[in-house]
Write a structure and sequence with these properties.
4-stranded antiparallel beta sheet, alpha+beta, 456 residues, homodimer
Chain lengths: 456, 456
């Protein structure tokens, strides 16, 4: 039977899959950094080569930013379903480098985990689909369904050029189902299908006061300190109970009741989660549990602060500028455009006198709620059960994959969110890792999914 | 007459004085930076050489930190008065380097100003005393009074080792008068005697939350964000009217009435001051004018903020730590030790849950009020009138020279604050400068002061 042969091929070739993944992880394709542009392009070229080796037609498609790598196989014919697999080959910046146990772009295995920037977000999860395709091709000479792989290089900087790309290529990319593996399972051994994603509105606030840094003695007390102004603005986002104070912010948020039942089924320990974060205590919006805070409640988080002298020792300077990066995670049915209006209006309203405050949106993405009925989700559930030996749970996802709702809107097909990360995987943080076991089982699940989609 | 010959010597030798000062300014003696330790020592050795060339006995006196350069001449005999001249040869860090018009350690003259880090704070003001001594020595073969020059290398990092040095050498350093030139005139052409100095309490606040940076989507909303916690703490220091909200902070502050009369005599334009700062508007504690805010009211200013991702573009990180440097400028009769207790207690009280907050004092210095009667101040007033052609005004000083009150306490002699900086001189900021005219007139005033002290 094909399934057995395909699974056997995966098991036999896993060491080579891993070596290839290590090559992929070794390329520092940091999309946020202009000085990494050549590395991003190198990662795209490498990925296109691997797609070709797996049996796809592959092309590097230019955009206004980093390119899209497009892989295609249409040999199942016009009557067979077409599945579009999405992932991204760009990664977050690796800083602060000194907090990595091993260098971020020198993949290393420790304790059954692959440590590297991008291991789980998203190179490992994208690459396992390429290997699943290879397993079918080398075993049976074909795929059970038509396949399109869309790998973008700008997910970590807001996917600005992907929607124009999708819109420009909507006919070519037409699909019956979309599969995305860029999320996590709720616990080791518990396969998970995503029920929702949070959206995002990411802002930068720049406060300007004096024309240059001033002596804090000679001038202190006589001008507004931009860092103080920024602190006042930043402190205004929440009350002491963790509730966001931006007027109108919660207007479009649904009551959490409908997810409470699902959340109750998810194996989850508040204390294990706290340990995973390393925080002295959990803290969040009053009246909600941790999974509710992560899955069905929006946030407003400071991502960065910078002002004045931050080096060793003391410098008595009154800073001329202060900067904050702040992002809101949004839940259905919040609209990023509306949130940006509210956020910007709020910052302008609370800005103290004596400084000039500039606030601008750096990027945004819509929240998403899965269509949990239909053949795509049934196929996904069977594929996951095949690989992991148990039925998947449904889970929200605190992170954002803004492109998911765009895919549904532009291509008109439902998305299956089938992620192979794990809690504590340090995506966006030092010592990012992906479980070796999940890379293996994820490859089996991805291969099984292609078969299940044909069988529906 | 000696005075005329001494003034003539200064005028004739000014070009060489300036060249020597440029050598001094070229040494990056940044006391806050451990990697500049050798440069600090090089500046000390250079200064000792120049003191010797001026006719002083000079020695480099070791301390637990950067050394003190001690110059002495006791030839006026035990019945003549002894004047101790204090200055510092260390400088503030020069960062941000990109904001300097010319490199900070390559002194340059533009528009009658010497631009360099340390030009006015304090190498230029210290060095003019050395040149005044040289002028006496080369002209008359002696000084009118006994002279001790104490030049420290740790003023910009809190003068930690100077008081122990003074205490250990109190007998040797015994003086009848102490002269400090490390402050500013209120306006060009208006010689100024300092009536008061603000003290300082400098703190660092470190907030720790998660064990490492977290993904702001996967974890945002479920733990306290250290940057948000820091913003809340920092925003708590003032109310919207600029009044400090630390309980007990103003308890020992005198009402400003006694300085209001002096302040009314000082030529001062609020608009010119605003332009000098480059701020869009002046702002400070409600109910006080700018000079009151600078001279007789305490402050609480943020000197630096750092948390999370501060580079180009956007990174969706929930930071593990956040840091603020905050310093309070104190007025008579506030006590830095008491302020430190109040500040630390306040920070602990307002710190939100879910993070660990560490607050520690980095350094402190007492405020000071001049004894404005007596022969020292009369001599100072005559010397300034001789050099500038008009009587000096009395002025407060917003900055701190913590060592001033220590000198009075340990050595029991009054301090004359006779500064030659000017508004807008950018001490502690990029493009620091000293007026060439003030370097020249300051040298004349310093020379005249030695004569006036003998004549009293």
């Amino acid at each position: 039977m094909d399934t057995n042969r395909i699974d056997a091929y995966i098991d036999e070739n896993l060491p080579r899959f891993r070596e290839e993944l290590f090559e992929f992880l070794g390329i520092p394709s940091v999309s946020a950094r202009s000085e990494r542009k050549a590395d991003v392009r190198r990662a795209a070229a490498w990925l296109a080569d691997r797609m070709r080796a797996a049996g796809l037609d592959a092309a590097i498609e230019e955009t206004a930013g980093h390119p899209v790598v497009l892989g295609e196989w249409r040999g199942a014919g016009p009557d067979a379903p077409t599945v579009l697999i999405y992932g991204h080959y760009d990664v977050q910046p690796a800083e602060p480098l000194e907090l990595w146990t091993s260098p971020p772009f020198e993949p290393t295995i420790r304790d059954g985990r692959i440590y590297a920037r991008g291991a789980v977000d998203d190179k490992g999860q994208l690459f396992l689909h390429v290997k699943a395709i290879e397993a079918h091709m080398r075993t049976t000479g074909r795929l059970p369904v038509n396949v399109v792989v869309v790998a973008e290089g700008e997910e970590e900087v807001g996917s600005e050029n992907l929607v124009p790309f999708l819109e420009a290529n909507a006919a070519r990319l037409r699909a019956d189902a979309i599969v995305v593996s860029d999320s996590s399972m709720v616990a080791p051994g518990v396969p998970t299908i995503g029920a929702s994603l949070r959206g995002i509105s990411y802002f930068q606030i720049d406060v300007r006061g004096p024309a240059q840094d001033l002596h804090s003695g000679s001038y202190g007390g006589a001008v507004m300190n931009p860092a103080t102004a920024l602190a006042r603005i930043t402190a205004s986002f929440h009350d002491a109970d963790g509730r966001i104070q931006i007027p109108g912010f919660y207007d479009d948020v649904r009551p959490p009741e409908e997810m409470r039942e699902q959340i109750a089924r998810v194996p989850f320990s508040e204390e294990a989660f706290r340990e995973e974060t390393g925080s002295p205590a959990l803290f969040g919006e009053k009246g909600f549990g941790t999974l509710e805070r992560l899955w069905v409640r929006p946030t407003c988080e400071v991502n960065g602060l910078l002002s004045g002298y931050t080096g060793e020792g003391s410098k008595t300077v009154l800073p001329s500028t202060a900067m904050a990066k702040v992002s809101c995670r949004l839940v259905p049915d919040q609209d990023p455009a509306r949130i940006a209006e509210l956020f910007i209006a709020h910052v302008r309203r609370v800005a103290p006198p004596g400084v000039v405050v500039d606030v601008r949106e750096l990027h945004s993405g819509k929240p998403w709620r899965a269509r949990l009925e239909g053949p795509l989700h049934e196929a996904g559930a069977r594929a996951l059960e095949h690989a992991f030996g148990r039925a998947p749970v449904l889970a929200g996802e605190g992170g954002s994959i803004p492109i998911v709702s765009d895919f549904e809107r532009v291509l008109g097909a439902p998305v299956l969110l089938m992620g192979f990360g794990l809690p504590g995987e340090n995506a966006h943080a030092p010592d990012e890792w992906m479980s070796l076991e999940n890379f293996e089982k994820g490859t089996h699940a991805a291969a099984a999914l292609l078969s299940e989609l044909a069988a529906r």
